[in-house]
């Protein structure tokens, strides 16, 4: 085999690699353009979810795909509502340090003069939207194939999902009350510097 033959074999691989890199760049550029448009992104996702549910209702099938999507979206919502640094875990670590005779450092501000720590989400808004959109598109794609139309009694899935939703949200809300954090920006934003008032 000559050098020209091996060069010819590598040329198609280089073309495929170059095309794949170009597609990835275009995909990232599109995502970057969508980043500042929060309301439009969420409205587009809501439209996709409506299309998916209309597909489920009119086709009278794919209930297991719908249930899997709902559970995944609930999991994303919980990660979105939780702080990145869970105070209950920090409290457990603090208790362990006290038992071992270590130095006690308060994980949360305990007085007015303590340092302000803003709420940092475990799952940022952008990642929440992107993961939800990808999951919804995959779910719509799955409804195109009969293999995913597993026969189930759908009312049981609906009741089970709502019970699971109620229990997890009750636990999350009690956690928010216990550790005194609000995962939403409510009210007027503070302006700093020479900003107009």
TrEMBL record:
InterPro entries: Rer1 (IPR004932). It is found in: Membrane. GO terms for cellular component: endoplasmic reticulum; Golgi membrane. Keywords: Membrane, Transmembrane, Transmembrane helix. It comes from the Eukaryota. One of its GO terms (biological process) is retrograde vesicle-mediated transport, Golgi to endoplasmic reticulum. Its main location: membrane. It is a multi-pass membrane protein. The chain crosses the membrane at residues 38-56, 62-81, 152-169. Involved in the retrieval of endoplasmic reticulum membrane proteins from the early Golgi compartment. Belongs to the RER1 family. This is Protein RER1.
